[in-house]
Write a structure and sequence with these properties.
By secondary structure, the protein is an all-alpha fold. It is about 50% helix and about 0% strand. It has helices at about 10-20, 25-30. It is flat and about 30 Å long.
Length: about 40
């Protein structure tokens, strides 16, 4: 499996979704196609 890389802007937006939204980290991770434990 190829390792995916994400730029700094993508990471900031993902964190903002978790902090400012009404969704859980698991929900945001699922929407972004990430494993739950990758968001930490």
């Amino acid at each position: 499996m190829k390792k995916r890389t994400f730029d700094q802007e993508y990471k900031i937006q993902a964190v903002d979704l978790c902090l400012e939204g009404d969704k859980s980290i698991a929900q945001v991770a699922k929407e972004l196609g990430l494993a739950y434990n990758c968001d930490r």
